[in-house]
Amino acid sequence: MAPLDGKYTIVLLHGKAHAGKDTTAAIIADYEAQAGRLIQTFAFADALKNLTLRVLAMFFAAQLTRAELDEIKNANGTIRPLLRPSVAVLPCALMVAQYAVLTACDVPPLVALGCAILTVATPLCVVLGSLAINARSLLQDLGTTLRTHLYTDIFAHTALMRTRDAGDVLVVFTDCRYDNEVEYIANNSPDARILFVHLTRSEKPSTTLDAKQAAHSSEKPINFGSLTLPHGNVDHVSIANDGTLADLSRAVRLVLEQVN
Questions:
Q1: In terms of Cα–Cα distance, which of 14, 90, 77 is closest to 207?
Q2: What Rg value do the Cα atoms of the chain yield, rounded?
Q3: Which is deepest, 21, 168, 190, 225, by most CB within 10 Å?
Q4: Domains of the chain
Q5: What is the pLDDT of residues 68-101, one digit of tens each?
Q6: How far apart are the C-alpha atoms of 237 and 239, rounded to whole Å?
Q7: Are 242 and 167 in contact (CB under 8 A)?
Q8: How far, in Å, CA of 41 to CA of 164, rounded?
């Protein structure tokens, strides 16, 4: 991706949950549009979210859209899926088998049927009743598993490949969370000018993460000074999002005016 008139070609937005990354991306898009420049947004978690939707559709009757998954995740809500009919075949087979055994033991048919239903359906209902999957935790756990056991840079690589067809536009990554994501993008885009924006927010958001979610590696701040960036093509700025939307907009626009 060639530099555009000396301006930044890639922006990486970093910050904890609810720090204002998506809002900042929208502000950047508006700023660039006024200057007659197009942007295209990407997320490192795009592939992870698409995979999660496929998993939910494969094993459960959960036909969620990306927008619905994002809404549930941002609200730290849960998904309550039902088992797909194909998955429910085993309990039904067990029920039939138990009924056959009881009737073979001279238990009256109606009594045998009732016992079979209660024996199998009761624990099944307990399992389904407790099957509340927290969307954010599911994404965190699945992402960690893939990064650990498949390929550390799997999401950075996939995201960068998607930008290859973006053309001469400003590319904005809305969810930079790991050191290796910054390093991978920078080291595989040596001709790009990259701006790393660290968003902080001291105000407690309305939707909080639980202790396990907050302690997850994806919520840890990136230490920019410790990154390995041999091409020297990344600049770093911090923006405190502790005021109103108008305050954040002014801060982001000021940064863009200064760096461009």
A1: 77
A2: 25
A3: 21
A4: 10-52+137-259 (3.40.50.300), 62-134 (no CATH)
A5: 888 888 888 888 765 555 555 555 656 566 556 6
A6: 7
A7: no
A8: 13
